[in-house]
UniProtKB/TrEMBL annotation, chain B:
This is Response regulator. The keyword DNA-binding applies. Residues 6-119 form the Response regulatory domain. Pfam families: Response_reg, Trans_reg_C. Keywords: DNA-binding, Phosphoprotein. It comes from Novosphingobium silvae. One of its GO terms (biological process) is regulation of DNA-templated transcription.
Length: 897, 234
């Protein structure tokens, strides 16, 4: 192990931040063992029980007893959270119920087997991630781990045991944990194994036989002890850093691999891995984000992502750090990560670039002090197609720029020749400033320098004595040449800065324009569905992604809008969306949770004042399943999310208002219903009751008649109430079939003959009227109610006409009466529930439901109804429009012969 | 009447039973009662009524299940009683073998008319009636001759088939399904629209005023019946 000193001085801000992040978090204690069977679980349970005895609220999250009696006896004293059953491939697997523990909120949870891989479909793929969530929720966790599951040691263990363990736990987990090594001497462990006290899955018995050799166990034990010591070191260092203690502390090796977009970076990563293996050191692959990243091509971006993914697969932790330059970034990260070795590739930049800027490697070596820097040659030199790379400003630029510069210098030379008699040489030099400044300002530094050089050469050749030669005879001339070049440099620098600012302003203007258009689109949406669709479409357009929007609901996130259209998401994506809702944090690809999801979900949060919490979740993804969002798009995404949240909040508020109005309307209807029911039911009932009483004393045919008619009125009212209930429930059973309007009208006239005794009913249907597709029963009720209505309002003795005609695009069936008609302006209102028009009230024995039923039934069949007044003779006219689509044309006549 | 016909009233509501019983007794029928499906089957086997009035809403069994059982176990005429909106229930009962239906609420005149129609159809069961007269229309099924206001009417074969089916049991409803199964025996050609057009053509030929049909009446959503004077009480 090497030693390095920490610079004495102020506490590092990162250390403070880390310490602050720890506050309110639960503490993790890991019982680390060299091999299965050393008694980690037993130790954990014992210590858990001791904590429980001192009054700490302890639960068992998950513990595998493997049928061992002593373990079971220890579990018995604890509250055990039931496992969640997960169906997978026909088996039911019992997984730790994370939500149940979170809901139970104990002070301390005992969670066995930290390296366990959860069943597919669980929230997190790994149990250590579950533990992370418990810690975040402020719950202390005790857990167990075998040394071969530690990620950075995985290869080491595999190298001498020849058994590769797939379930690994990142070192970062161990770094935040208190570690207790559960240790028994190898001989004793082998003894326990022989006695059958060590649980080994049946199928692994043979493989593990080799594993439990004395050499292996000794090596493993050493590793475990060393890892624990290392963790203690790291924690001590953290303490020192937080408290700014000066001094030198021993820590383990840590290797840093500088990952870049170059294809050979994969080779660096592999080399880093070999080095890490050799030193048994943890390692990190880091990418330093600089201005250059903005000009990456897609291929380069992909290459970088692949490199980091490879590192992650090989057991490295990975990071991407923004910095002003590669050297600065690497230095500060190496410092923070306490790296002892840096692996970097040999620069592929041209010699002149390095000559001008100094080689990255040189500067790095100089600036990192006691960190060892390994410079490796490029393994693979697959060159990125230079043409694809967009040209960063400050490069050579097109040749045309130089041609223009040369031409301008030539023009000035010509002008100078013409004026040389009139003005002195010094002023002619001033003329040359014009092309130099112009070239530098317009074409950049290089073209400016080029122009300056050309100008000084031309000045020297054509004007400075001796003319016609390139010689400098006096210091004045030297000065004029230097001035020309200096002007080129200064002007181009200024111009470049102005251009950069203009570019920045341009890009922020573009962003503002995007936001403004987004905001406009959202404001234009009238309904929530439109709004959701607009959000998806705009986000998809502005960020060039696929977008979905989900609303939280009892049954989980509900996919409500998508662009391009998408009607379902995978289970894992739903889980990510749910997590984003529950935790009010992003989840999915490119976040830190549920990264297996191809989608990235961001919650839309309501303003805190409204107390509505997460209003919706926006999911974004790319067709090619790349990371959904580039880091340079993040600010725009955040602004979009903000605006979408505001729009959502506004919509929710409007909805609440509307709902309040709807409730008001419903209350009004309910009051009308109650008054109608109490009147329309009680009046005939009262009449019937008193008539029956009277009948007992004096038998009289008139009283019987009264009872009969009132009972019929009651019957009609109850029937109407039932029909109306069906309309309002929106549950009309539709059985549309070919219907003959002659039949329908005849049936209705027949059924209303009693109530229409005072009127003559004229049926006027054109003989060749076609059949129509309707529900005969519903249509029958429509007609009965229209006829009933006419019978009630028409003047006695006047005829009621049923007329059926072919209209332009519909059949029109009208019921026409002669009477007071409909008060002007009330033509639409007559179809409202419980509308009884003024002056007509109770005397007409109406229920106020009939016309509403007509409308409800008609609309259910796809028909329209309207009311109007006739003039000659005056009266009401109710018309049912049967649209063309419902007409049955062309019936083959041979089938009916 | 020399023979008093026996009617079984199946209804779980005692008031309804009492009222129906009073009406039937007044018209000189013998009545027996049952308040459940079990009791009804029992009475049916022991008392052998000629007519059964069966309410479909029974407490111990779905009335529809009872329809085929009644028809299997006894040689009786079955009239089902059902609520106003239960169109499908009525059609199902008729297609299962019920002879006619009554809609609740009904009045006693209607009830007696239905019972009379049922009994008459029962007596002429087998070949049905040989001849029917409705107003100025006479239908002779033996001679296949239709005369309207003294003039013979010529019908197409399908028109005649429909009219004959209705006329065999005058006053009784025949469901659309029953008519179509008879006139268009092959499923593929069976369409309600053909039936509608056919009935419209029939009415053109048989009715005095086709806009206000008096001969063939339509039971909305259920079927057609040949209206005979007795059943046009109103």
């Amino acid at each position: 192990m090497s030693e390095r000193s920490i610079e004495p001085g102020r506490p590092s801000p990162e250390a403070f931040l880390r310490a602050a992040a720890q506050e309110g978090r639960g503490r993790l204690k890991i019982f680390l063992g060299a091999a299965p069977g050393v008694g980690k679980t037993w130790e954990m349970l014992t210590e858990g029980r001791q904590r429980g005895d001192t009054g700490v609220d302890v639960v068992v999250g998950v513990v595998e007893s493997h049928g061992r009696r002593e373990t079971e006896a220890l579990i018995e004293g604890h509250e055990v959270i039931d496992r969640r059953q997960v169906a997978h491939a026909g088996h039911s697997l019992g997984e730790m119920d994370l939500d149940a523990i979170l809901a139970r909120a104990p002070q301390l949870a005992l969670v066995d087997e930290l390296a366990h891989t959860n069943a597919p479909g669980s929230r997190h793929p790994k149990r250590y991630q579950d533990v992370e969530e418990l810690l975040t929720a402020g719950i202390d966790v005790y857990s167990t781990l075998n040394i071969q599951h530690v990620e950075s040691l995985n290869d080491v263990v595999a190298s001498f045991t020849r058994i590769r363990v797939r379930e690994t736990v990142p070192d970062s987990i161990l770094e935040q944990a208190e570690i207790e090594v559960v240790d028994i001497p190898p001989d004793e462990l082998i003894e326990r194994l022989k006695e059958g006290k060590v649980y080994i899955p049946h199928e692994a018995t043979r493989a593990l036989g080799h594993f439990f050799s004395k050499t292996n166990l000794t090596a493993l034990r050493e590793l475990a002890l060393r890892r624990a010591a290392q963790a203690v070191d790291a924690q001590m260092l953290e303490h020192v850093r937080a408290n700014a203690l000066a001094g030198s502390f021993a820590v383990g090796e840590r290797i840093l691999v500088a990952a870049s977009e170059h294809p050979h970076a994969a080779g660096l990563v592999r080399a880093g891995k070999r080095m890490a293996d050799a030193l048994k050191a943890p390692w990190t692959a880091v990418h330093i984000e600089t201005q250059r990243d903005r000009h990456f091509t897609d291929a380069e971006r992909r290459q970088l992502a692949d490199t980091l993914a490879l590192a992650s697969r090989l057991g490295a932790s990975t990071a991407s750090i923004p910095a002003t330059g590669v050297v600065e970034g690497l230095r500060s990260f190496a410092h923070d990560a306490r790296a002892t070795q840096i692996v970097i590739g040999k620069s592929s930049r041209s010699w002149w670039f390095e000559a001008r800027h100094g080689s990255v490697v040189d500067r790095l070596v100089r600036s990192v002090g006691d960190v060892a820097v390994h410079v490796l040659p490029a393994e693979a030199t697959v060159l990125v197609d230079a043409a694809v790379r967009s040209l960063p400003s400050g490069h050579w630029g097109p040749p045309r720029n130089y041609l223009w510069s040369a031409l301008m210098v030539a023009a000035m030379t010509l002008l100078g020749r013409l004026l040389v008699e009139a003005i002195d040489l010094g002023n002619i030099a001033l003329l040359y400033l014009v092309p130099v400044m112009f070239a530098a300002a317009t074409f950049g530094l290089r073209a400016g320098l080029f122009a300056g050089l050309m100008a000084s050469l031309a000045y020297n050749f054509f004007f400075l004595p001796p003319t016609g030669t390139l010689t400098v005879s006096n210091p004045e001339n030297v000065i004029s040449i230097l001035v020309l070049l200096g002007v080129a440099v200064v002007t181009s620098q200024f111009a470049a800065r102005v251009r950069a600012q203009a570019e920045l302003a341009g890009s922020s203007a573009r962003q503002n324009a995007a936001l403004a258009s987004f905001s406009r689109q959202l404001t234009a949406s009238a309904t929530k569905d439109e709004l959701m669709q607009a959000i998806c479409a705009e986000v998809a357009r502005l960020l060039d992604v696929q977008a979905v929007l989900l609303l939280p609901s009892e049954a989980g996130p509900d996919l409500r809008a998508a662009y391009p259209p998408e009607d379902r998401l995978e289970q894992i994506e739903i889980a990510a969306a749910q997590w984003a809702i529950d935790n009010e944090q992003p989840a999915g690809r490119g976040s830190s949770t549920l990264t297996a999801s191809d989608w990235l979900f961001h919650p839309l949060q309501a303003s805190s004042a409204s107390g509505r919490g997460v209003l919706a979740v926006l999911g974004i993804a790319r067709e090619d399943t790349r990371d959904p969002i580039r880091s340079d798009q993040l600010p725009l995404l955040m602004s979009l999310l903000d605006q979408a949240s505001v729009a959502f909040d506004r919509m929710a508020l409007e909805e609440e208002n509307l709902k309040a109005q709807a409730v008001g309307e419903r209350d009004r209807l309910r009051a009308a219903l109650l008054s109608s029911v109490s009147h329309d039911l009680r009046t005939p009932l009262t009449t019937i009751l008193s008539a029956a009483q009277e009948l007992r004393k004096h038998p009289s045919p008139e009283l019987v008649e009264t009872i009969d008619s009132e009972a019929k009125r009651l019957n009609r009212f109850v029937a109407n109430l039932l029909d109306m209930a069906r309309v309002e429930a929106g549950a009309l059973p539709m059985r549309a079939e070919a219907t003959d309007l002659f039949d329908a009208v005849a049936g209705a006239v027949h059924d209303t003959r009693v109530s229409l005794l005072a009127h003559m009913v004229e049926v006027d249907i054109v003989p060749d009227i076609p059949l129509v597709r309707l529900d005969p029963v519903l249509f029958h009720h429509c007609l009965i109610n229209l006829l009933d209505n006419a019978g009630r309002y028409a003047d006695p003795g006047t005829p009621i006409v049923i007329r059926c005609r072919r209209g332009a695009d519909a059949l029109l069936l009208s019921v026409i009466d002669q009477g007071p008609g409909i008060p002007p302006g009330q033509e639409k209102r007559v179809f409202e529930t419980f509308t009884r028009l003024e002056g007509s009230d109770r005397v007409r024995h109406g229920t106020g439901l009939g016309l509403a039923i007509v409308k409800g039934f008609a609309e259910a069949m796809g028909l329209a109804v309207e009311a109007s007044n006739n003039d000659e003779p005056h009266g009401a006219c109710f018309t049912i429009r049967i649209p063309e689509a419902l007409i049955i044309a062309n019936i083959d006549s041979k089938n009916v012969l | 009447m020399t023979i008093r016909h026996k009617v079984l009233i199946v209804d779980d509501e005692p008031h309804i039973r009492r009222l129906i019983q009073a009406a039937l007794n007044r018209a000189d029928y013998l009545t027996i009662e049952a308040e459940s499906a079990r009791q009804a089957m029992d009475r049916l086997q022991h008392e052998r009524p000629e007519v059964v009035l069966l309410d479909l809403g029974l407490p111990d069994r779905d009335g529809l299940e009872l329809v085929p059982l009644v028809k299997q176990h006894a040689d009786t005429t079955l009239i089902v009683i059902s609520a106003r909106d239960a169109t499908e229930e009525k059609v199902a009962a008729l297609d299962l073998g019920a002879d006619d239906y009554l809609t609740k609420p009904f009045d006693t005149d209607e009830l007696l008319a239905r019972v009379r129609v049922a009994l008459r159809n029962r007596m002429t069961r087998g070949g049905g009636v040989p001849a029917v007269t409705v107003g100025d229309l006479s239908i002779n099924l033996l001679e296949r001759k239709i005369v309207k206001a003294g003039k013979e009417v010529h019908l197409t074969p399908k028109e005649y088939a429909v009219l004959a089916q209705l006329a065999k049991f005058p006053g009784r409803v025949i469901t659309h399904e029953q008519i179509m199964a008879n006139v268009w025996p092959r499923d593929a050609e069976r369409h309600v629209e053909y039936l509608r057009v056919l009935v419209r053509n029939l009415r053109q030929k048989l009715e005095t005023d086709p806009q206000r049909p008096q001969v063939i009446s339509n039971d909305v959503g259920i079927g057609y019946r040949l209206r005979i004077p007795e059943d046009t009480l109103g």
